[in-house]
Design goal:
Elements lengths: L1 H17 L6 E8 L3 E2 L2 E2 L7 E9 L5 E10 L7 E9 L7 E10 L8 H4 E10 L8 E7 L5 E15 L2 E12 L11 E10 L2 E3 L2 E12 L9 E9 L1
Antiparallel strand pairs: 1-4, 1-15, 2-3, 4-5, 5-6, 6-7, 7-8, 8-9, 9-10, 10-11, 11-12, 12-14, 13-14, 14-15
Length: 235
């Protein structure tokens, strides 16, 4: 297991360094006060997390791979190593369509076992960038541990604050049809997320402070609403 962790970390660090020299790679690191995912609190100790990720796009083919890591400052059982493979269809400017597959791995759990500590999810996202608020519709289906469907409607709007500064406002509404819910739990609209971000371009990097408030509607997801804030550094 230690060898597996070392390989993952070395691969990630090599890819992050290579981002500076290759147009195919992009890098992002988020420092976030809490880890909230689809309404679930994945770090119940409420300690901050660091979430770096590296993406490699295969030229103009539409194919891309992403490696995501989550480092918790407290609860190491929430740490993840996620691998995503996606394809963007060439659909023109009025419509965007992406399909993909994600393997989630809780690789830092003691006595890690691939069968018991990984899960697989397929997804499809459709976007309409020319419509007001640029709506997107995403559907995710977990075929293993989280067995079930989760769908999300997202919107976004840019507000120009000055010549070089724009605020990005966002909202999303999630519907949980049983994904990661216990047997017999209610399904339905699960979480409403309202966010604001302020991307600032500086050299090769974009630094983005942001904040999000999540309203949770299903008790099986969480009994509390969530507020989180963070800063993202992307290249």
């Amino acid at each position: 297991m230690k060898k597996f962790k070392t390989i993952i970390l070395l691969l990630f660090l090599f890819s992050a360094a290579f981002c500076l020299y290759s147009g195919g790679f992009s890098f992002q690191a988020d420092f976030v006060s809490r880890y909230i995912w689809r309404g679930f609190d994945l770090n119940p100790t409420k300690k901050p997390v660091i979430q770096p990720q590296v993406t490699y796009a295969f030229g103009d083919s539409g194919f891309a791979v992403n490696l995501f890591l989550n480092f918790s400052f407290e609860d190491k059982n929430t740490n993840e190593v996620d691998f995503t493979f996606s394809y963007d269809f060439k659909t023109g400017e009025d419509f965007a369509l992406t399909v993909g597959f994600t393997n989630y791995a809780w690789a830092y759990i003691k006595d890690f076992d691939f069968k018991d500590h990984t899960t697989q999810e397929f997804f499809v996202t459709a976007g309409f960038p020319k419509l007001p608020l640029s709506p997107t519709i995403s559907v995710y289906y977990d075929v293993n541990l989280g067995d079930g469907l989760y769908a999300e409607l997202g919107i976004g709007h840019s507000v120009e604050l000055s010549k070089n500064l724009t605020a990005e406002l966002s909202g999303s509404l999630g519907y949980n049809a049983g994904q990661w819910l216990p047997d017999g739990a209610n399904t339905g609209f699960s979480d409403l997320n309202l966010g604001a971000a302020l991307p600032i371009k500086t050299g090769k990097f974009t630094v983005t402070p942001y904040a999000t408030y999540t309203f949770v509607f299903l008790d099986a997801v969480s009994l509390d609403n969530h507020f989180r804030f963070g800063i993202s550094i992307a290249q």
